[in-house]
Design goal:
The protein contains 3 helices and no strands. With 151 residues, the chain is mainly α.
């Protein structure tokens, strides 16, 4: 009966002859973690500022609603009060929407800045890894050629 060859030893030898440097994976994981942390900080800051704007808007609206609830002497005063409320609300809405737009603009600028910086870092890391891999492969090929020539 034919004996099945043991490929485990062959694979172990192959892996031993082509060492893999895991430090590049660790660095990539670390840099992705740092990028994630910075992006989370940008998002949380924007959420905090948006919440502050919403709270101010709600307080302004509630304060103006109190003016609507006051009893008036003349029926026309109710119409004037409602008209004043509507125009003040439109003005305040424009101010708060502009504040939201500023938050969105800041988030966009910060995100683009982070992504550009990350892209530059990734390109530099990729160049370093490619150079290291090329050098290691050349050494492995030379070692294999020397081993073959010696036999």
């Amino acid at each position: 009966m034919a004996k099945t060859p043991d490929f485990a030893k062959t694979f172990q030898d192959m892996v031993a002859n082509f060492p893999i440097d895991t430090s590049s994976f660790q660095e990539a994981f670390k840099s992705q973690g740092v990028l994630g942390e910075k992006l989370a900080r940008v998002a949380l800051t924007a959420a905090e500022r948006s919440t502050d704007i919403s709270a101010r808007w709600a307080k302004d609206t509630i304060a103006r609603m109190g003016e609507l609830a006051v009893v008036k002497q003349e029926p026309s005063d109710y119409a004037k009060s409602l008209s004043d409320f509507a125009s003040a609300s439109a003005e305040v809405a424009a101010e708060h929407m502009a504040a939201f737009a500023e938050v969105a603009k800041k988030v966009q600028m910060d995100t683009v800045d982070l992504m550009l910086t990350a892209g530059k870092d990734v390109a530099a890391e990729a160049r370093t890894v490619a150079e290291t891999v090329a050098r290691d492969n050349q050494l492995a090929v030379k070692k294999a050629a020397t081993t073959v020539a010696a036999k």
